[in-house]
Structures are given as C-alpha cells and as structure tokens.
Design goal:
- This protein is mainly α and 140 residues long.
- It has a single domain, classed as Rossmann fold (3-Layer(aba) Sandwich), CATH 3.40.50.
- It has seven helices and five strands.
- Helix 7 links the parallel strand 4 and strand 5.
- The model has no long low-confidence stretch (mean pLDDT 95).
C-alpha cells in the first residue's frame, strides 16, 4: 500500500495531464494491480490548491479545474491520518534543513506504514538522500 503525494496526484487529475506521462503510466500500473493507495488528508487540500492556482494563472479554465477536482474526489486513495505523522513531519523538516513540513507529512506516513512513497518531487528525494523506499513514478 504505497503512499502517494500531491506532486504525483496533481498530474493524475490536472486538465492538461499528458496521457503518456510517467505519472499516468504509474496510475495505470497501480490501478491494474489493484494496490490500495494511501495519503494524508492534506493531499486533497494540496491538489485542490494547485488546481485553483492553475485556473487563477490561466493555465486552464475554471470549468477544467472543477472537473479535475471532481476526478480527484473519485480517486481510490485512502486517507490515513495521525497526529503522530505531524509530529514526525516536524522532526523530519527540522532535520532536513527546514524542508516544508507538508512534504514531510507524506514521508512520515510512509515511514509509519513501512511502505513506499511515490513522488515526483525531486528536491524531496534529494534532501532525503534518495532512500530506496521513496520512488518516482517511472519506478512504479
């Protein structure tokens, strides 16, 4: 049951998502294997904010953002939240040069669940030292 983060999921639902992108290939692979996906509640706020920002910057229309948000709510991603994840995320953010705590919530969840984190965030992977359990969509 891998953890997925907003950097990946936004490319699953964005109005201009490229069907041949590594993110979409990962989604197809995960869907075909019927593996449950996990994320903290924060995922929906982060992806929703990215969709709003895209509409505000005229990357896509408001109707496109609305449709993308509906797709987001239909994804088979299970919310797994714990106050322990926020505490651990704080520790990780401080340890890794004050990297954003919202990124570290995904890391903390993956650590707690002893599972893989799938992310497109290269800077997150680099700051963590490229651990084998943090992978990009091409590695799914």
């Amino acid at each position: 049951m891998p953890v997925v983060d907003a950097s990946l999921v936004v490319d699953w639902v964005a109005p201009d998502a490229a069907p041949d992108s590594p993110a979409m290939a990962a989604l197809a692979s995960l869907a075909a294997s019927d593996i449950p996906l996990l994320a903290p509640r924060l995922l929906w706020e982060e992806v929703g904010n990215a969709l709003l920002t895209g509409a505000r910057r005229q990357r896509w229309s408001g109707a496109g953002a609305d449709s993308a948000f509906r797709r987001l709510t239909l994804l088979p991603v299970r919310v797994v939240d714990s106050a322990l994840d926020v505490d651990r995320a704080w520790e990780l953010a401080r340890r890794y040069d004050n990297h954003p705590i919202y990124d570290m919530v995904y890391v903390a969840l993956a650590q707690r669940m002893a599972t893989q984190l799938i992310t497109q965030d290269r800077s997150l992977r680099q700051v963590l030292g490229e651990p084998p359990w943090v992978v990009g969509p091409a590695e799914v």
